[in-house]
Design a protein that fits this description.
about 450 residues, mainly alpha, TIM Barrel, three-stranded parallel sheet, globular
Length: about 450
């Protein structure tokens, strides 16, 4: 078993470690924060009803509260695509918070997204800062796991090490996280305080990090044969993640988005997620209440449609279970460039509204990457038609902006959304344009 000092010697140190102190201690009660937020929402509704154009912050507040803004908003993630678009590698941007903030601001300004979620360093950085893994950091892709310290440990050593690491963890000082603290400080100052734009924080999800630290083989073995071990492990990781979420909230970010992505729906049965993942989402959401938090998975199709042998659930039940966690939004995004990100969009919208949730719908990334501007425009128009009337909290996003996507296609995406997604949505025009182009 490696010692704590041996593990931490492999972690890049930006600042010396200090003990954790909760930065939200002394803040107004969640109820008082919620009342202040509601005042802002009511002001945005009055502005909308007057016919004035809403700001990015006002549009975000309305859609997050299941109200209808002046047009459908859109968000995007900051991965390799935006960094490369402006001539930088992922590592250049990740290592330099000032440059990172400048590129985020430039991207948001140029393309008109409501907010941009930083995503280069979000999947593994917390468990690396805790000394549970060693990161592999190639120059131009998001980081990946290189060394998993748990592989050579016994089960009990894993659990003891995890609990110790969670108790010690301080996101303000440990690993590379201080760079992300500085990034969000810069973004809040330049975007929210100076321009009134929302800032989207994108920390990773607890289940995703637990699986990453354990490895898929041990995860599945524990779920099947030692469920108490998995519950103990994810409880430790939840404790650490709550610290990171509360640290980010203390920086005054507008809202959160947390992604279970590749190792959730595509690789685990819904029943496994109901048992081993869902119980740990609610406490994470509550730890930053009333700050809105989008907690989502890529792909509903793997949860089944009720007709797949061996799958006893379906995606509507999956959305119902997701809604129970307290997240304000449900999604149907796809797990890769080539998988359609939707099942039945009308049923998806109706389900979200029945559950009292906002809803995010995406387009196939392949269209953005390889299609023409006209094909991007047609895809946006199709999704709006299938979601019509797109009311009560509708958001349209690209799953991500793939590396190599042209500026013309990104502009085509945003411009088509403004053209066809401005309220009241003109469904007759949408149908006419689809018929005219098909003909």
């Amino acid at each position: 078993m490696s010692t704590h000092e041996e593990r931490m010697s492999l972690v890049e140190e930006v600042l010396p470690h200090k003990d954790w102190n909760d930065p939200l201690e002394g803040w107004p009660a969640p109820e008082d924060q919620g009342a202040m937020m509601m005042t802002m929402i009511q002001g945005a509704i009055a502005k909308r009803d007057s016919g004035a154009e809403l700001s990015r912050m006002e549009r975000t507040l309305l859609v997050g509260s299941q109200n209808q803004p002046d047009r459908i908003p859109t968000f995007s993630f900051f991965t390799d695509g935006p960094a490369n678009l402006y001539g930088y590698t992922c590592r250049q941007v990740e290592r330099d918070p000032k440059l990172h903030a400048q590129v985020v601001e430039r991207w948001t300004e140029e393309f008109g997204f409501e907010a941009l979620g930083e995503g280069i360093d979000s999947m593994n950085s917390e468990i690396e800062a805790m000394g549970l893994i060693k990161m592999k950091l190639p120059e131009n892709v998001p980081g990946d796991v290189k060394i998993r310290h748990f592989d050579e440990m016994s089960d009990e050593e894993v659990l003891d090490t995890w609990e110790e690491a969670a108790d010690r963890f301080n996101p303000f000082t440990d690993g590379r996280l201080p760079r992300r603290i500085e990034l969000y400080q810069r973004l809040v100052e330049s975007l929210t305080k100076q321009r009134g734009w929302p800032v989207l924080a994108a920390p990773s999800a607890t289940f995703a990090q637990t699986v990453n630290a354990l490895g898929f083989k041990r995860t599945v073995n524990w779920m099947r044969r030692k469920p108490e071990n998995f519950h103990r492990a994810i409880s430790s990781q939840l404790k650490a993640n709550i610290k990171w979420f509360r640290a980010l909230k203390s920086l005054e970010v507008t809202f959160f988005i947390s992604i279970d992505a590749w190792n959730a729906v595509p690789n685990f049965r819904p029943e496994q997620l109901y048992t081993f993942e869902k119980p740990y989402v609610g406490p994470l959401v509550q730890s930053i209440a009333p700050s809105p938090m989008i907690y989502f998975y890529w792909g509903l199709a793997p949860t089944g449609d009720g007709n797949i042998p061996g799958i006893t659930t379906d995606w509507i039940e999956f959305l119902e279970k997701s809604a129970e966690t307290g997240t304000f939004c449900v999604t149907n995004l796809a797990p890769d460039y080539y998988t359609p990100p939707s099942n039945d969009l009308k049923k998806f919208r109706e389900t979200a509204q029945r559950l009292g949730k906002s809803y995010i719908t995406g387009i196939k990334d392949e269209v953005l990457l390889s299609g023409s501007p006209g094909e991007v425009r047609a895809e946006v128009r199709r999704v709006i038609r299938d979601l019509y009337p797109c009311d009560k909290g509708c958001v349209l996003v690209p799953n991500m902006i793939p590396m190599g996507t042209t500026k013309e296609n990104i502009h085509a995406w945003v411009n088509a959304l403004k053209e066809y997604g401005t309220y009241p949505i003109d469904i007759d025009r949408i149908n006419h344009d689809i018929t005219a182009e098909d003909g």
